[in-house]
Structures are given as structure tokens and as C-alpha cells.
Design a protein that fits this description.
- The complex is a heterodimer.
- By secondary structure, chain A is of the alpha/beta class.
- Chain A has 11 helices and 8 strands.
- Chain A has helices at 26-38, 75-85, 97-103, 105-114, 159-166, 179-191, 205-211, 217-227, 231-235, 239-242, 259-271, and strands at 47-51, 66-69, 90-96, 118-124, 170-175, 196-201, 228-230, 246-253.
- In chain A, strands 2-1-3-4-6-5-8-7 form an 8-stranded mixed beta sheet, with helices on both faces.
- The relative contact order of chain A is 0.14.
- Chain B has 2 domains: 7-190, Thiamin diphosphate (ThDP)-binding fold, Pyr/PP domains (Rossmann fold), CATH 3.40.50; 269-376, Rossmann fold (3-Layer(aba) Sandwich), CATH 3.40.50.
- The longest helix of chain B has 18 residues, at 147-164.
- Chain B is globular, with a radius of gyration of 21 Å.
- The structure holds thiamine diphosphate and iron/sulfur cluster.
- Iron/sulfur cluster (SF4) binds at residues 20-21, 24, 26, 55, 125, 129, 204-207 of chain A.
Chain lengths: 277, 377
């Protein structure tokens, strides 16, 4: 644990203050990420952070790495191009739950399927923060959103199950209430060789919290605390008990050849010249 | 290895891949679609042979994103598609324009709208190329009319893209893309290859310097930790909503193309001196026009041939320059008149402009053109 880590060099402090509301969880996720990265001896000049569009996707602009703020839902294919062009780069994608599972859902499952060496951090606040609190594929059933004023009819995804089924080789979930655990999850994800996914459950007090009468940002964190359960504990409990819980921990830790490694092998094979026609 | 046989039968789509590789392309991302698929298949085969990479993405949106990402990762990247896929790429094409990321997009046009006829030729994406993505922006688009020209213009597209940090389009059509011609491919040493300018190491870096037409472009990982965004940005690449900076940025994007019109606009003409009628054409249609004009001239008719290989920026000035010496301009095209309107803008009432349009999936024949010439001259 690196509570005392100096993360300031990783921040573009001249870009502060951030656009985020007071009490927003985005800063907590970014903090966990930066503490995680500070434990690795990575050259910051070789770190790339790609983001989509949304409140959370603004994170890239505040980070002192190679940063690319892309289009809504598309950071993963942008990152795929970067990683393929230069596999020695450490590529991290940051995006909201809407960006990742709605408009970018297709890219998400395919990046997982390819097992490309990218770490995807989903800032999961259960809503579209940037556009003012509309429904997301992660908005809970019967919860309120500006586009679900009578309660949401849809059922949300389970991002971790989705990632696992699609082939991600490292999948974990953490919450902003437990930043130290979130940090160590992100550290593991960053170190992982292959496509790693962190479902970072965070709070949007301004829209999700207000529309669902969840109180202050602190009340929202308390709600997380009261609903969190570890994967180990959840395993021994019946389904209906864990239904409305946030199950945290490492869901998948697998080894499968990473995509750019496969490409390197293909090039070697072509060098030995079985490729020529 | 990588060196393609010098003279042989090439398909248009194949010449496009050969041109891309000759220009230094080492990354392709795409999604298969008729009639562009041969480009993907050839790229999949050829690129790994020379250390390059090919990836079949989940869709055209992802393909365009990966092409832009690869470019900023240091690759020379391209993609190919056709009408429906070109539509899907548009949002990210706008991103590449705004963020000034070099890349080449090939659209082998087929008949639309929608799925239309996948195997039928058309020239219906002229305006999609111009205005397909949102907002004001300049566009560079070439329309080759032969296999050899497809090679040459692909090289040129990459060169301009690198030099101007601008996505560049190649508008092939089903006919030129699938046609086979015996062509000579120039040796690598005969080609001029332009690579993007790089910033000096250990110097302060402005990726979007207001004082420069085009700033050097650092690849990620080269030591310049800067920001790229599709939002309006300042000289360092950070978002801004300042109206003065917005105006400066958008004006510079336009200016960097306007300042190079001579280099970008390629046209060909013959029989113009005595012409009272000039046939204006581009792409596959120019092949029929060439024959028709020759037949007309053989029969003593004062008919001129003007072909543009550059669709955007459109050669308004060149057309305007001969319009007042001409009575009629005839514009045959395989659409309902997309370039016709541009020719009218160029002519500005100095001569009569007549269209000859087919949008039934069939090529306009030399006879049809000759017939029209006789009718309107
Ligand atoms: C193609 C496109 N569609 C819609 C939008 C508008 N838009 C911007 S952000 C956003 C949703 C943001 O929600 P999420 O991804 O969950 O991120 P958050 O703001 O909650 O962090 C939407 C719909 C857009 N920018 N681009
Ligand atoms: S709207 Fe919500 S997600 Fe966006 S900054 Fe405010 S609290 Fe955070």
C-alpha cells in the first residue's frame, strides 16, 4: 500500500481545477490508479492513457502521460491501434459505464476476445453524468434517470461477467469507498499480460444520487459500504441475498496469449518466410 | 520481399495496396465490404511480410479509430471501405481532421443509398466525402481513373497526409477498383516519399502551434507527454472554448489545405484550345469520356476534355479559367449531379452547364456521351 505515494508528478496540476463536481468519485478512481502506477517502475513517457467521452473520460487531460481523449464509446479501438503500432507502450483506457457498455459495447467485447494488452478502467457510476443523468446500461432496474422518470425498465449488465464471457483474462471490481483495495486491484490489472478490466463502482452525487434520493456524497459512500460484499463471502451465500450487493474482488485471472505477442510470433514466422507467396 | 514485380496485370484495388506499401504504409485496420474487400485481403497478406500489421476490426467505426490510434503510435496507416462503411467511419474521420492525425481512407464506391447494389459501380459518395463528417473542415479526395493512377494517387495521398497532418480520401469506384490493366510499377527509388515532421528532442513541444501551418507530430512514447482531443484545443492540445482560439484553429485547418492547392489539384486536359464544348469528368467515367471526345474530334467537332483527379479541393479556378471561352460544359457522372453543382459554381454563369447522369449501376458509355455532345453542342 502506498498511501504516502507522491502522485503529483503524474498530474498536470496546471490543468486544475478539474471539471468534476464536489463529491464526484472520479477523482478517487484516478487517485487509486496513480497510486497503483507509482508502485510500478514504468517510465511515464511510455504510458498512454486513452479515454472516451464523458465526465470520467476527462481524466486523461489531467494526467501527465501520453493522453488521448477520443470519441464517445471508441477509446478501445483507438487504444488497440496504438498498442499494435507500438507494443512496448503501457496502454490504459479510462471511460464511463455508458461509454464502455452502451455505445462502446461492441468494442469492449472484442478487445476482451482478442486479449490485447490494454487495461480498461470503467468508471461505473450507473448513469450518463456528462449529459445530465440519463439512463445507462448500468442503471439499476427501477432506478431513476432523467430518461427513466418512472423508473428504469431495463436490467443492467454485470460488467465483470460480460468481460469474462467475452474473454478478458483479468477481471476485477472495486469501489470508491475502499480506495486501497481498488488501488491494489488496479495494480494487478496493470501488471497483467492481456486484456484486463476493472469495474470501478463510483458515485455521481449530482445526477444519480439526486435523482435516486441517495443523499450526500458521503451518504452514497456509506451506501456502498453497506452493500459491498467480497467475492469470497458471496460465494457461500444464496443468490437472493447477494442480488442487490456489490460483489468485489478478482473474478478472472487467466493466462492466454496476448494479441501483440501473437503478432510478434507471426512476424517471426514471416521472417522465416513461410508467409511469402 | 515487399518488392512487387515491375510490369504485370494489376487490379485497381491491388494497385492501391501496392501504392500504400510503396508509400510506407505499415498498418491497416478494416472491416470487409464489397467492392473494397480485395484491399483488406491483400493488406492482410502483404503487411505482415514486411513487418507491418493488419487487423480486422469489429466494425468500420473501430477500424477508423484503430487507424488513427496506430498513426499516433507511429505507423503509417490506412483503411478501405465502401459506401455503408464510409458512413460509419465519418465521426472518427472528423476526429482525425480536428486532431490532425495523418491517415488514408479508401472508399471503393458502389451504388447507394443504403446497401443499394453492392456490386454495382457508382460515383455517389462525392458529397459524402466532402460533408460526411459534421462541422466545417477541408477535405482532400482523389478519384483515379486507371489502375496505374490508383498506385500513383495512393502514394500521393499518403505523402499529403503526412505533410499536412490530414486524413486523405481515395475515391475509387467499383470499375477502377476491379479493373485489370497491365501496368508498370515504378521502382522504390523513383518515388518521392514524404514522412511527417518530428519535433526536436528535449525542446518545448507545441503539437498545435498557432504560428505554424502544420506542427511536427510526435508519436506516443517518443518522450513528449502531450494531449490529443477532438474538442477545440489550444496549442498544447488541451480543450478550450475560447472563441478567439476556436476561430484561429478552424481557420488554420482550412488554410493549411488552401495554401497547397497547386500541389493537391491534379487535372488533365486536351483539345481545349478550340473547344466550344468541354466535357468535365473524373474517375471511371473519364474513360468513356476520353473515347467519346476523341471520336467527336475525329469528326471535326470542337470538343475539349477536362478531367480532374482531385475531387476535393475542387478545381474551381481551373474550370473558371476556361469557362468564358466555352459555350457549354458537359458533366457526365454516375450519380444525380453531385459534381455538376460544383462545376456550375465554378462557371458562375459564364457558360451553359449540362449534366449526363446514370444512377442505375451501369457505366456511361462513349456512345451515350457522343450522343449528348451532338445534342448540346
Ligand atoms: C456519438 C455521441 N453520442 C452521444 C454523445 C453525448 N454524450 C456525451 S458523454 C455521454 C454519456 C456519458 O456517460 P458515461 O460514458 O457513463 O460517462 P460519465 O459522464 O458518467 O462519466 C453522452 C451520451 C457524444 N458525445 N457522442
Ligand atoms: S455529473 Fe456526476 S459524474 Fe459528472 S462530474 Fe458531476 S458528479 Fe461526477
Amino acid at each position: 500500500m502506498t498511501k504516502t505515494a507522491d502522485i503529483k508528478p503524474y498530474l498536470r496540476l496546471e490543468r486544475y481545477p478539474t471539471i468534476w463536481c464536489a463529491g464526484c468519485g472520479n477523482g478517487q478512481v484516478v487517485g487509486a490508479f496513480l497510486r497503483a502506477i507509482s508502485t510500478l517502475d514504468w517510465d511515464p513517457k511510455k504510458v498512454v492513457v486513452v479515454s472516451g467521452i464523458g465526465c470520467s473520460s476527462r481524466a486523461s487531460g489531467y494526467l501527465n502521460f501520453n493522453t488521448m481523449h477520443t470519441t464517445h464509446g471508441r477509446p478501445l479501438p483507438f487504444a488497440t491501434g496504438i498498442k499494435l503500432a507500438n507494443p512496448e507502450l503501457h496502454v490504459v483506457v479510462m471511460a464511463g459505464d455508458g461509454d464502455t457498455t452502451a455505445i462502446g459495447g461492441n468494442h469492449f467485447i472484442h478487445a476482451a476476445r482478442r486479449n490485447i494488452g490494454i487495461t480498461m478502467i470503467v468508471f461505473n457510476n450507473g448513469t450518463y453524468g456528462m449529459t445530465g443523468g440519463q439512463c445507462s446500461p448500468m442503471t439499476g432496474h427501477a432506478c431513476k434517470a432523467t430518461t427513466a422518470p418512472y423508473g428504469n425498465l431495463d436490467t443492467p449488465f454485470d460488467i465483470c461477467k460480460l468481460a469474462e464471457a467475452a474473454g478478458a483474462t483479468f477481471v476485477g471490481r472495486g469501489i470508491t469507498y475502499a480506495p486501497v483495495k481498488l488501488e491494489s486491484l488496479i495494480t494487478e490489472a496493470l501488471k497483467h499480460k492481456g486484456f484486463s478490466v476493472i469495474d470501478a463502482v463510483t458515485q455521481c452525487p449530482t445526477y444519480y444520487g439526486r435523482l435516486n434520493k441517495m443523499g450526500s456524497p458521503a451518504d452514497m459512500l456509506t451506501w456502498q459500504k453497506e452493500h459491498v460484499i467480497s467475492l469470497e463471502k458471496a460465494a457461500s451465500l444464496p443468490k437472493h441475498v447477494i442480488q442487490d450487493k456489490i460483489v468485489t474482488g478478482v473474478f478472472v485471472k487467466d493466462l492466454r496469449p496476448e494479441y501483440t505477442t501473437l503478432y510478434r510470433r507471426l512476424h517471426e514466422q514471416c521472417g522465416e518466410d513461410d508467409c511469402h507467396d | 520481399m515487399g518488392q512487387i514485380e515491375k510490369t504485370r496485370l494489376f487490379q485497381g484495388n491491388e494497385a492501391c495496396v501496392a501504392g500504400a506499401i510503396a508509400a510506407g504504409a505499415n498498418f491497416y485496420a478494416g472491416y470487409p465490404i464489397t467492392p473494397s474487400t480485395e484491399i483488406a485481403e491483400l493488406a492482410a497478406r502483404k503487411l505482415p511480410e514486411t513487418g507491418g500489421k493488419f487487423i480486422q476490426m469489429e466494425d468500420e467505426i473501430g477500424s477508423m479509430a484503430a487507424v488513427i490510434g496506430a498513426s499516433i503510435g507511429g505507423a503509417k496507416s490506412f483503411t478501405a471501405t465502401s459506401g455503408p462503411g464510409f458512413s460509419l467511419k465519418q465521426e472518427n474521420i472528423g476526429y482525425a481532421m480536428m486532431a490532425e492525425i495523418p491517415c488514408v481512407i479508401v472508399n471503393v464506391q458502389r451504388l447507394g443509398p443504403s446497401t443499394g447494389i453492392a456490386t454495382a459501380p457508382a460515383q455517389g459518395d462525392i458529397m459524402q466525402a466532402r460533408w460526411g463528417t459534421h462541422g466545417d473542415h477541408p477535405v482532400i479526395a482523389f478519384a483515379p481513373s486507371s489502375v496505374r493512377e490508383t498506385f500513383d494517387l495512393t502514394v500521393k495521398a499518403f505523402n499529403l497526409s503526412e505533410k499536412l497532418r490530414q486524413p486523405v480520401f481515395i475515391l475509387l469506384d467499383e470499375i477502377v477498383g476491379h479493373m485489370r490493366e497491365n501496368i508498370h510499377i515504378p521502382h522504390q527509388d523513383e518515388l518521392e516519399i514524404i514522412n511527417r515532421e518530428k519535433p526536436l528532442p528535449d525542446q518545448p513541444y507545441k503539437p498545435y502551434d498557432e504560428e505554424k501551418e502544420v506542427s511536427p507530430l510526435a508519436s506516443f512514447g517518443e518522450g513528449f507527454s502531450y494531449n490529443i482531443t477532438g474538442l477545440v484545443h489550444d496549442e498544447y492540445g488541451f480543450p478550450t472554448t475560447d472563441s478567439e482560439k476556436t476561430k484561429k484553429l478552424l481557420s488554420r485547418l482550412q488554410r493549411k489545405i488552401d495554401n497547397h492547392l497547386e500541389e493537391i489539384i491534379l487535372t488533365e486536359e486536351f483539345g481545349m484550345d478550340d473547344a466550344s464544348l468541354v466535357v468535365v469528368s473524373y474517375g471511371c467515367t473519364a474513360r468513356s469520356v476520353r473515347q467519346a471526345v476523341k471520336m467527336a474530334r475525329k469528326n471535326g467537332l470542337p470538343v475539349g476534355f477536362f478531367r480532374t483527379a482531385t475531387i476535393w479541393p475542387f478545381p474551381y479556378e481551373k474550370i473558371s479559367a476556361f469557362a468564358d471561352k466555352t459555350k457549354t460544359l458537359l458533366v457526365p457522372e454516375m450519380n444525380m449531379g453531385q459534381i455538376f453543382g460544383e462545376v456550375e459554381r465554378a462557371v458562375h454563369g459564364q457558360a451553359r452547364v449540362v449534366g449526363l447522369n446514370r444512377f442505375d449501376g451501369e457505366m456511361i458509355t462513349p456512345d451515350e456521351i457522343l450522343q449528348k455532345i451532338l445534342e448540346v453542342i
